Amino acid sequence: MTGAVLIAVYLLTLAWFLGLDVVRKVPPTLYGAMAAGIGGAAAFATAVAFAAGTSGQQGASGTLVWIAVVVGGAGIVAGLRRARLALADVRRRRPQQRRR
Asked: What are phi and psi of 2, to 5 degrees?
């Protein structure tokens, strides 16, 4: 492995474990806010990776940039889907609360 790829894998692994540690410490009442923050971070990462990808990277660096774009895009789509499901759940619960 080249040095850049090894450092990228190391940073990805470090970010993964740090993210798991943060998620475990968040109380359930703040999951919505945490999901919004993660979605914003995914959007930012996608924008930065896309800008880097269009700068003409070649070889392993270019491949890693496009993988970052795909993963960030998947994070954005998953966050939007989760928000839509949460809003649908809120709309379903409202009529039940009015009847009481």
From this structure: -75, 165
